[in-house]
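Appendix B, record 7
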Amino acid sequence: MDYREADVHALRHDLFCGDVYLADTKADRELGTAWGWVPVLDFAWALCDIVEQLDKDPLGSRASRPQYAELDFTESTDRMLFSRRFGWVDIEADWMRVEEEPLTFSHGELRKEARDFLHDVLADLIDLHEELGANPVIWTLQARYPRVV
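Structure tokens (predicted):
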């Protein structure tokens, strides 16, 4: 594979698979996969997309009307479900137990962590596959979702 030439589909669906999780370190809880085949770059990319989708209401953190998004996993029917109301995002997954509470993060914190995760994943992948750093898709992705200070 010439990583300089890898297209969006290959980068998002065919390469760099493993497991992912979201963790609430304050509550000592996490929501993750244990399937071994989740495209990690795609997860990081999709998470950044979802955080932005949840910020469409012009009222922002004052919006009382819930905003929804979902992340579906292409090799299964499982999904992660995101719901934002006011400045808080609840995250659930199809595989959670019924009695289990969703993870809850402030929208601003989720945005920062999602972008940090994306850039950390890219840095690790570029360390492993240096030519990936020359891929224009990666440049566009980094520019679209810069780190949040």
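Remarks on this record: The first strand starts at residue 17 and ends at 18. The mean pLDDT is 95.
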